[in-house]
Amino acid sequence: MERVPPRRPRIILVGSVIYLALIFGVMLWRGISIEPEWVVLALLVIAVALGRGRSFIVDWAPFLLLFFAYEAMRGFASKTGFAPHDLSGLERGLFAGTLPTVTLQNAFYRSDAVSPQDLIAMFFYFMHFPLPIVVGFVFWVRSRDHYRRFIAALLLMAMLAFVTYLFWPSAPPWYQFGANRGGGEEVVHKILNETVDKLWGPNYWVSPLYTHLNPNQFAAFPSLHAAFPALAALYAWRRYRWLSIALIGWTLAVALSIVYLGEHYVVDALDGFLYVAAAAIIVEAFSRWRAPKPEARLLP
Question: 145 with 194: CB under 8 angstroms?
Answer without folding.
Answer: no
